[in-house]
Write a structure and sequence with these properties.
Helix content: 25-40%
Strand order of the largest sheet: 13-10-12-11-15-16-14-17
Strand content: 15-25%
Shape: globular
Radius of gyration: 21 Å
Distance between the termini: 45 Å
Largest sheet: 8 strands, antiparallel
Mean pLDDT: 93
Number of helices: 11
Low-confidence stretches: 1-11, 148-155
Length: 365
């Protein structure tokens, strides 16, 4: 077992101090700042704006307790580096975060709030975020949460950073809950159309099956099972389907997570729709891919944003323009007034002068 890394009393005080000075100077002149890490998710959200604020100097795994399933890392730490440390102890980030490039960082992973194929069965980024240190718009260092689940002081604030796209401040470091790697995995293939697949996935969701990912596209459903081998064998007998080669399965799920699969290639705008898992077929033109037991629908379409968002709303969900396309209608679905008011209050509390990543989510944030 690897030794536990103990956190420093004031990690990277010089680097944090320099960033704080830049933030205070920007606040004095009301100069917008664009937080820059690895840049692998710069495509996501509205176009970045402001004077670059490089945070890649805040790097390193600060603490790791394998027996406690907790790791703390600074924002500029490469995601691959953290995953390598965990893999050495047969552990992982259970939300299976996408990299979208070798330069992906821990801070960018939390700020983007994106999760991979395991999301529906394991949870998302915010479900594993135990604590964080934030450099706010006043140049002050704030700490929220702690290294164990029972320490809930400020926990909700830390969770709010997941998916915030950096608009609340610089995420200096984060503490994440980790999980053991599964003992074994197998992937099954089934044929069927959208309607039959959605019904299948929702029926299986109510059964004690070791499902860790699902993906349907072009008439084929792939289902990943994770756990102990006897459990996988029993589940496979119950489910049926055809087992695919382990290497092909790994390529399939990696291609889905990193969006290098053929479905994601090409110039057509890529939409992500979040809907109830039992929602019927989208009935929108364009290639589609279904993930997360039916709750996440990917769509390649040149249809107007209003058309796609209206259909998503009719199904009880919302739509995000994930890549490409005309962004004049906004990348993210408009917020209801009460939710917009909460976002505004959070922004006012942490970044009253609107310094960080202005307009990255919505124009007034």
């Amino acid at each position: 077992m690897a030794p536990v890394l103990e956190p420093a009393a004031e990690p990277l005080a010089t680097e944090v101090g320099e960033l704080a000075e830049r933030v205070r100077a920007a606040a004095a002149t009301r100069t917008p700042l664009q937080i820059k890490g690895g840049g692998t998710k710069a495509f996501y959200g509205e176009a970045p704006a402001g004077t670059p604020l490089d945070v890649t100097g805040l790097r390193g795994v600060v603490a790791y307790a394998p027996t406690e399933l907790v790791v703390t890392a600074r924002c500029g730490t490469p995601l691959a580096e953290v995953e390598a440390v965990l893999a050495a102890e047969r552990q992982m980030l259970a939300f299976e975060p996408p990299h979208f490039g070798a330069a992906a960082t821990v801070g960018g992973t939390v700020a983007a709030g994106l999760a991979g194929p395991r999301r529906a069965n394991a949870g998302g980024v915010r479900d594993f975020l135990l604590g964080a240190t934030l450099l706010d718009g006043r140049g002050e260092l704030l700490r929220f949460g702690g290294p164990v689940m029972k320490n809930v002081a400020g926990y909700d604030v830390a969770r709010a950073l997941a998916g915030s796209l950096g608009i609340l401040g610089v995420i200096a470091d984060v503490t994440l809950k980790v999980a053991p790697l599964p003992r074994a995995q197998t992937t099954l293939r089934f044929d069927g159309d959208q309607t039959a697949t959605i019904a299948r996935l929702n029926r299986w969701a109510g059964q004690p099956l070791p499902i860790s990912a699902s993906a349907w596209s072009d008439g084929a459903l792939h289902l990943r099972l994770s756990g102990a081998e006897p459990a996988l064998e029993a589940a496979a007998r119950t489910l049926g389907g055809d087992a695919i080669d382990a290497r092909a399965a790994e390529a399939l799920w990696n291609g889905l997570r990193e969006q290098t699969a053929p479905f994601f290639a090409g110039p057509a705008p890529l939409w992500r729709l979040s809907v109830p898992s039992a929602a019927p077929a989208l009935e929108l033109a364009g290639p589609q891919l279904i993930e997360w037991g039916g709750a996440q629908r990917w769509l390649r379409s040149d249809a107007p944003a209003a058309t796609i968002r209206a259909r998503a709303a009719a199904l009880g969900g919302h739509a995000t323009l994930f890549r490409g396309g005309d962004r004049t209608a906004g990348v993210f679905a408009p917020l209801a007034k009460p939710i917009a008011a909460i976002h505004k209050r959070l922004k006012d509390a942490f970044d009253p002068q609107r310094l960080f990543n202005p307009g990255r989510m919505y124009p007034d944030l």
